[in-house]
Amino acid sequence: MVLIIMAKDKSSTSKPNVTSNPAIAPNPDIKSLSEWMLERNKSYYQSPSTAIHEDFSTYAQSPQGLLTRANARAFHSYAKKNGRNRYDVLEAGVGEGAFAHGFLEELKALDKSSKTDIASRVHYTLADFSETMMKKAFARLESAGFKGQIHSVTWDASDPESDPFGFSTFQLIRCNELFDDLPADAFVQQDGEIHSVLFDGNLKPHIQPAQTDELDEVARKLLLVLPQNYIMPFNQSALDSIDKLLERLDPRGMFDIFDYGFYRADDFALPPEMWNLNVIREYNSQWTVDLNFLYLSIQLAQEDHSVLVEPQADYVKSLMGNEMADVRITDGLDYGKEQDDGNGVGEDSIPIDAKEDDFFYHLAVKSK
Questions:
Q1: How far is CA 243 from CA 61, 300, 367, in A?
Q2: Are the C-beta atoms of residues 78 and 254 closer than 8 Å to each other?
Q3: Residue 192: what pLDDT?
């Protein structure tokens, strides 16, 4: 059972700052969001110069490694209750390997403190489509002494035909900020009418009437009950990838997704002008989009999976307890936050007391 909390205010009359044309002529510079993301992000992640930890700083990368350590603690507890000679862990979208490194190190520390032997029985699969990222991750883990426990497979999460896992099953599948990079399409509801949103190369939106076959029933219903004039991404490619990974999940296993996006009514506290400027962003040529946790959780529940969505801060606090005290990130995703210059915060700014990690969620999925 998934508890969905819808936004309370559906009466906003401030329309998106978009170019509207019911019959946009074919224009190679105006494309769907999914087309732009596929084009830009493949180029970004395959570039030898890409250094994601220099481009991004997020809650998952707090100096204390709290999210990584919390996930390791959850898995360690699971492993103690489900004794096995071997534990298979899959991380999809490994980046530069920081999450994997911290996870394996924390398991070793937990074994030492609890006199268990779980870390040595973990076989860790790194999955990514980027050779650049894979090499960096593999080198990092090898130098940390985990060479005998890791191997890699090439997997393009945006390609529904990509399936390099054979007959393997995993006791833990984990993804950290993978699905916000996958192609998604955007729509907006205005006065009860649904429009698709296209973009030019500068992220300027252009709207046109949505075709019936562009949206599934869940997406259409959500658009009609969520606040109007807010551009909403629908992450169909992410849902397809999650479904593919669920086929590889041990029936008693854990599937943890850590990403940023929207789920709660409070997430719509931003005025639509600010929301529409920030729901899709460009970082160093990469395009990234908020994950629609509402859409994903409803779809997965309808597929008969058990689903939990919670803020990452709550997830970490439940596992780390007192170690969460006074932990903040100061230089990560700020969603356009501006400092007060003495004349008041600008009309298009987020209030300066906005909490940066409000938009970071943990999605846990299990087969029923």
A1: 27, 8, 11
A2: yes
A3: 93
Q: Which amino acid type is present at position 62? A: S
Helices and strands: H and E segment counts in the chain: 10, 16
Q: Which residues pair with 306 in a beta bridge?
A: 366
Q: Does residue 1 form part of some domain? A: no
Give the residue-averaged pLDDT of 253-268. Answer: 94
pLDDT of residue 13: 47
Mean pLDDT of 137-158: 92
Whether the pLDDT of residue 46 is over 70: the answer is no
pLDDT at 69: 93
In which domain, by residue range, is 278 found?
A: 19-334+345-367
Q: What is the mean pLDDT of residues 113-120?
A: 96
Q: What DSSP character marks residue 366?
A: E
In the chain, the number of structural domains is: 1
In this structure, what CATH number is given to the domain that contains residue 289? 3.40.50.12710
Residue 237 lies in a domain: yes
SS3 362: strand
Find all residues with CB under 8 Å of 247, minimum gap 6, and list them.
Answer: none
Classify residue 153: in a domain, yes or no.
Answer: yes
Q: Which residues have C-beta within 8 Å of that of residue 202, sequence separation ≥ 6?
A: none
Q: What is the DSSP letter of 226?
A: S
What's the CA gap between 179 and 289, in Å, rounded? 9
Tell me the average pLDDT of the chain: 81
Q: Using N-to-C axis directions, what is the helix angle for 293-302 and 236-246, rounded to 10°?
A: 40
Dihedral sign, CA of 301, 304, 308, 309?
negative
DSSP SS3 for 200:
strand
Q: What is the DSSP letter of 341?
A: -
Tell me if 126 is assigned to some domain.
yes
Contact of 357 with 267, CB cutoff 8 Å: no
pLDDT bracket for residue 149 (50, 70, 90): very high
Print the SS3 string covering 304-316: CEEEEEEEHHHHH
Pairing of strands 185-190, 280-283: unpaired
Point out the least confidently predicted range of 211-215, 265-269, 303-307.
211-215
The percent of residues in the chain predicted with pLDDT above 70, rounded, is 76
